[in-house]
């Protein structure tokens, strides 16, 4: 597949997440679903952080600015309650990851990370697609049933 096609695939997959961001209100951010340890705000922040980490560390976009606060904390600290800030951060992640995908030359190139070992860039692409979709599903449940 060409990079332009991969961007289309990624953007379409990410709509599951972005549509939820459009629906979310400030009061939704502290909500959790059942015994889940993660709030809506945490999931939004975490998803964007991981997209940025992939853009930078997997796909080589070195100008990405990221401090992975959810990963550093290792748990939901309740700090992610500013909806406009989260939306802006998520938009930044979207732009950076799209630019990183567009710049790829060799999708068969292997990369290695401590988080998931050795993978080709195309396998890593599948990983970031499913990571965001996984958390979009969690976010949907929180927005629908969370308290």
From TrEMBL:
Signal peptide: none annotated. InterPro entries: DinB-like, DinB/YfiT-like. Residues 11-139 form the DinB-like domain. This is DinB superfamily.
């Amino acid at each position: 597949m060409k990079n332009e096609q991969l961007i289309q695939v990624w953007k379409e997959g990410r709509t599951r997440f972005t549509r939820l961001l459009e629906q979310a209100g400030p009061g939704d951010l502290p909500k959790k679903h059942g015994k889940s340890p993660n709030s809506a705000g945490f999931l939004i922040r975490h998803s964007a952080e991981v997209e940025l980490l992939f853009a930078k560390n997997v796909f080589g976009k070195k100008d990405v600015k990221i401090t992975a606060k959810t990963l550093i904390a290792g748990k939901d600290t309740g700090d992610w309650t500013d909806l406009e800030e989260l939306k802006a951060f998520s938009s930044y992640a979207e732009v950076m990851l799209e630019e990183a995908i567009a710049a790829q030359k060799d999708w068969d190139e292997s990369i290695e990370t401590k988080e998931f070992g050795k993978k080709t860039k195309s396998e890593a692409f599948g990983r970031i697609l499913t990571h965001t979709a996984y958390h979009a599903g969690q976010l949907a449940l929180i927005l629908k049933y969370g308290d």
